Amino acid sequence: MLILPIVNKNRIMNVQVKLKSAEKIREKVCFDDAKESDIIVNREKFSDSSFKDSKDISASIDFVRSKSLLHPRDFLITTKEEASSTFYDVYKIAQPPRKVNENLDKLYSCVLTDMRKEIPGTNRGRYLSFEKLGVGDHLTDEKIAKLQHIVKENDKSMWPELFKREKIADLQDTLDFINNFDCTIISDTTIPEDSLQDVLRALEVINTKDSRSLRNYYNMALSNRDIYTKISYINNLIYQKPLSLIKSANQKQKQLIKIKEESEFSKVA
After folding, report:
1. 140: closest CA among 115, 100, 168, 172?
2. CB 14 within 8 A of CB 185
3. Residue among 98, 95, 78 at smallest CA distance from 26
4. Which among 2, 100, 228, 263 is least buried, having the fewest CB atoms inside 10 angstroms?
């Protein structure tokens, strides 16, 4: 489970990050022609490729793209084996989005790797830091200022050309890339920011490993908030609405019901 800690309205939320296109299609299986913790693209296997030994975080997405050039199709990921058997689960994933930059590719690869490292029946979380991956490195104040000027001073039909001319088209591309992720607030894990700050003040006097880990967790949540806020502001400038990527389970359920109702209505109409 990939977890994004993030500060929001004086609370620290823990958000599970997945891919919208990922669908678990098999559970408790063991195939002769498929190993555990693998990626299979057009019958080519990550475990048999040169990418397997790469130290590059983006190796997973690089492998998928390289084996999809001629035939871009859905691909498969197998999880690790269960703790007490040789069975594993299988995911089907749609082709990754077009590359924007190396750092966003690292983010996508982290999610692929998280599926590969999943142990069915075991809940093991891994923290996700936008800052460490460099997700916000290209979201500079200068580029955002240019974007703000263009959208406020020019007709919408001129935006694409002006974005390219000012070399800020990657800001809109970032929104398209980010929207491939499914981000759900994990129930009953939200922490009041004031409470965490009180605990940190009490523990930092003794400077233990636990206090340093907790401080790192809080700093990560703050930096994730800052980068997410920038992305949301860019979304607001271009689409006149804040980014609504992160949702609670209840919000997602209500959204699903609304989509179903609209679908049924369109059939009747």
Report:
1. 168
2. yes
3. 78
4. 263
The one-letter amino acid at 105: D
In angstroms, the CA 42 to CA 40 distance is 7
pLDDT in tens, 183-207: 999 999 999 999 999 999 999 888 8
Give 194's contacts (C-beta < 8 A, 6+ positions apart): 10
Residue 268: pLDDT above 90?
A: no
Separation CA 183–CA 245 (nearest Å): 6
How far, in whole angstroms, is CA 183 from its chain's centroid? Answer: 7
pLDDT in tens, 124-133: 899 999 999 9
- Buried (b) or exposed (e) across 161-199, using 16+ Cβ within 10 A? ebbeeeebbebbbbbebbebbbbebbeeeebebeebeee
What stretch of H or E contains 14? Answer: strand 11-19
CA 168 to chain centre: 22
- Quick one: DSSP state of residue 70? S
Contact 120, 87 (CB under 8 A): yes
